[in-house]
Amino acid sequence: MENADVFLGLHDFLERMRQPAAADFVKAIKSFIVSFSNNAPDPDRDSAAVQEFLANMEAAFKAHPLWAGCSEEELESAGEGLEKYVMTKLFSRVFASLPNDVKFDDQISEKMGLIQQFIRPENLDIMPAFQNETSWLLAQKELQKINMYKAPRDKLICILNCCKVIGNLLLNASLASKENPPGADEFLPVLIYVTIKANPPQLHSNLQYIQRFRRQTRLAGEAAYYFTNMLSAESFISNIDAKAISMDETEFERNMEFSRALLSGLSVDTQDPNSPYQNYGQHPRAEPAKHRNKALNDNKDPTLRTPSSVAKSESKRVSFSDELLITKVPSLSDLENKGASMILKEDKLNEIFGEFPYLFASVGDLTVGDVEDLLNNYKQLVFKYVSLSKGLGVSSTSNSQNNTQDHVESETTLDSSEGESVGAIDEPEKSIDTMEDSSEKVSPLEEAKSESDLPQEEAVAPEAAAPS
């Protein structure tokens, strides 16, 4: 993406807006936000209005004494600061504002949730030399951060970080295996796979938001290339079927049905003669299909070519349905490890554990009156834990604590080692200034309210006219 140094002066934008000479700018920005918010959502009209306003304001910045003698870098920072401020204020009004977008988010998320249970890299013709699912976890983690931010640029950085991790890993793999340097044919299938595995929240709405409200002149070059790849990945995933992933139609439908059963917590009996799953693994294997090529070639961007076909060894392929025959019900230890992994990815642990007031307390913090409360909490915890154990059919006396610790250590090792192998990753700007940190991150459950604003416009008479 663009040089990170360009964005070190974002704080300068608000500082200039606090000066008396910026009074007309302040008035124009606030007026636009108010008038925009009063209109009903209309994606095309909203996008055009924001793009026009940003362009007019940036042109006015260049001609204003406040930026006299400033470098192109400082003017770029001012434009970024303006976009970030305006879109943070308008976020709740424009993001996922249409029922169709919300519906599509749910549909594609559900589809990824099902397919991620059985898809394998070879289903997307990813060469064995380029397969590294452990390292791809870092790319998934970057993509899953997309809902933590409001500004279009910050969301775009999450996508770019994901793509850069994939690109670096593919390059390292090609050097190690002495393969040709990876191109679009190698990159796009991995991005599709990583996206399915990550199942980022509100993928469609986030892509639409970036496309509509990221300043068009800045959505170019490397950023445009990677973003177009992500649009292609979304399109492919939304239309994915058995032929697209080189799978027999019958096998695909059985896998999808079994995934639904697993995700809904149903118990599937494969031994029951009347069960629709009792013939799993006994169907004839169809030849790999290559219809995914047409789906990817339909994209108008000539740089996004279809993945090259890779010969598969059918004797080594094991279907997802075959694997499920020997898959055990997850134990409490497995579930705890999964939960621990999810907790490690959270950035606001205080919100997760907020309802457990004694978790971070020390002995000196407790009073005699707390004993009864602690005892009741302990009894409820034991009852829930034993009930869960019985429901899963596993022993309640597991070594989950040791397993969880091992998992934490492996996660830490992975993060540190992978960070060294792929190089530094850009971080989205957390805020325009220190008073707006809370407005940039968005909790999955609730949106933090911005506590700062532009200075009041009535302070001093302006020196320049507001942009038209």
What is the helix tally? 17
Q: Structurally, how many domains make up the residues?
A: 3
Proportion in β-strands = under 5%
β-strand number: 0
Average pLDDT rating? 74
CATH topology of the largest domain: Glutathione S-transferase Yfyf (Class Pi), Chain A, domain 2
Which bin fits the share of residues in helices? Answer: 40-55%
Order of helices and strands: HHHHHHHHHHHHHHHHH
- Within CATH, the superfamily of the largest domain carries the name VPS9 domain
Termini separation (Å)?
A: 31 Å
Structural shape: globular
CATH top level of the largest domain? Mainly Alpha
Return the CATH architecture of the largest domain.
Up-down Bundle
Largest sheet: none
Radius of gyration: 26 Å
Low-confidence stretches: 1-8, 269-295, 299-318, 324-328, 398-425, 430-452, 457-468
Category by helix and strand content? mainly alpha
Q: What brief labels describe this structure?
A:
mainly alpha, disordered N terminus, Glutathione S-transferase Yfyf (Class Pi), Chain A, domain 2, Serum Albumin, Chain A, Domain 1, single chain, 468 residues
Topology overview:
Layout: H1 10-17, H2 23-37, H3 43-63, H4 72-94, H5 99-115, H6 133-143, H7 152-177, H8 184-198, H9 203-213, H10 221-238, H11 249-263, H12 292-297, H13 320-324, H14 332-344, H15 349-352, H16 370-392, H17 400-422
Helix pairs in contact: 1-4, 2-4, 3-4, 6-7, 6-8, 7-8, 7-9, 7-10, 8-10, 14-17
